[in-house]
Amino acid sequence: MGKVKTSKRPGAASGPYDRKPASKAAANTNIFKFDKDYGQHILKNPGISDAIVEKAYLKPTDVVLEVGPGTGNITVRALEKAKKVIAVELDPRMGAEVTKRVQGTPLAKKLEVILGDVIKMPEMPPCDALISNTPYQISSPLIFKMLAMPNPPRIAVLMFQREFAKRLVAKPGDALYSRLSVNVNFWATCKHIMKVGKQNFKPPPKVESDVVRIEPLLGSARPNIAFEEFDGLLRIAFNRKNKTLRAAFAPKEIIGMCERNYKVYCSLNNIPIDESLADISAGGDDAMVDSADIDMDIDGDDDAQENDEDAGGLDDEDEDMPAFFKEVGEDFKDEKTPSRNPKSKVGLVVRAKIAKVLNATGLAEKRSRQCDQNDFLKLLLAFHEEGIHFS
């Protein structure tokens, strides 16, 4: 009996194990495409994912917030140790991917995926721990949003671009010391955990990364200072961190902002404004600093200009500052009230108070890059005694 012959088209497979591998071009069309606009660089090294979760010291009762879970490499490990993981993801495709990763397993009941931008949320979901392979473009907003929470997480283990991570742990006098450094070390303790090479990501980013652990101060250890107030002072001080604090508070926009806040403070507390201080300030009393002295400080601080150049333009690249000062500048360009003029009666009072505080604290000639968090706290409390506020 003859064998039955079957026709077979060229290149067809006769069974599941006879399939030819797809061409490289065809394979590329099936790969999950990552969106660099979302900062999607997926961590592919399982050892680093293990280390991030391990360094979070998770407890079985913990609720973990993960920002940008990607395909779930860190998520799955956190689910195995914690009570619940809330994953906030901007990209719906990634949200579906991480959900599918645990679908049909006991871990699925412990996972909640929220689609959206964590920075635009009115409040971050309450949590015991925060972990993230952080998209680089939200690094600073994420840190400040976490620190500003009424009840911040016990611990945060976050991956950042290396330069940003170095700013987090920088000390006074370091080239990368900034408003970010002061804020983090005032409200939390921060420690460098490990370096992560770009080859550990898919697709690889252009820069190296570092992992840091941040432990916010909780309960009675948390400073009894409004975050917005302390941060408002730092925004002014670090606008040009290599200038003296005397020069940092000299611009008319800053005087105008302080004047406006001082008026509100006096009005709310029924405090009459002592305009005699304006006469002292205008007269150039030795205990004060008149406007001519301050203007000279701004225009003629040669040492500070040299230091700015030595720092390689780091101040100009500080993403934390410009938006605030642009908004302030625009407000004062359009404003028709007396607060636009720093030489108004109230403006001179405020100028005198600022000079008094800077001289009394001994910080007038000190530069922001040389001050630690205790110096800034002393400065803030002295300003509050004079009715000057920054939020």
From TrEMBL:
GO molecular function, one term: RNA binding
EC number(s) reported in the record: 2.1.1.-
Domain of life where this protein originates: Eukaryota
Keywords: Methyltransferase, RNA-binding, rRNA processing, S-adenosyl-L-methionine, Transferase
GO cellular component: nucleolus
InterPro entries: KsgA/Erm, rRNA_Ade_Mease_Trfase_CS, rRNA_Ade_methylase_Trfase_N, rRNA_adenine_dimethylase, SAM-dependent_MTases_sf
Coiled coil location: none
Ribosomal RNA adenine methylase transferase N-terminal domain location: 48-218
Name of the molecule in the record: rRNA adenine N(6)-methyltransferase
